[in-house]
Design brief:
single chain; Rossmann fold
Length: 174
């Protein structure tokens, strides 16, 4: 068996979306994927609501930290197979050169760390980000990666990023 595919999730602050994606893929893709996360301008620590949400979903949060994407462009960094941006800002920035020439795609998700409103509304934004990323990662882990040519795989990765996630709309539940 080959080594697991190394996947890096990027966003600007590396405090919410990319950490959530890292957690989900490491659980859902265990053995087949190894996920990492980083940011172009890391906040220095994961957002407290990110950690609260992941703890409530039985994730071990002890290893999560907010880190720079430069860690993954250094000698000795894991050879990356895939790099996914999960925020629009990071998608528009000039990324470092990654070891391994990974395949890339943009899987933009609204930033829950800038959500406003009551505590319940802000926490709902984190839950929505989790749901959207979970949906996309579920599609990704079920792709027959080894049997797809690069062009077909790239089209699949791009289409995952365009997945229209059903928003939590209270009116549609009525």
């Amino acid at each position: 068996m080959q080594r697991p595919y190394n996947v890096l999730f990027l966003c600007t602050g590396n405090s919410a979306r990319s950490i959530i994606a890292e957690a989900i893929l490491n659980r859902e893709g265990r053995g087949k994927f190894k996920a990492y996360s980083a940011g172009s301008q890391p906040k220095g620590a994961p957002h407290p609501y990110t950690l609260d949400l992941l703890k409530k979903m039985n994730f071990d949060v002890s290893q999560f930290r907010s880190k720079s994407w430069n860690e993954f462009a250094q000698p000795g960094a894991p050879e990356l197979d895939f790099v996914f941006t999960v925020c629009d800002n990071a998608a528009n920035e000039t990324c470092p050169l990654w070891p391994g020439q990974p395949m890339t795609a943009h899987w933009g998700v609204p930033d829950p760390a800038v959500a406003e409103g009551t505590e319940a509304e802000v926490r709902l934004a984190f839950a929505d980000a989790f749901r959207m990323l979970n949906n996309r990662i579920s599609i990704f882990v079920n792709l027959p990666i080894a049997s797809l040519d690069k062009l077909t795989l790239q089209k699949q990765l791009d289409s995952i990023g365009m997945t229209k996630d059903a928003a939590a709309d209270p009116a549609s539940a009525a």
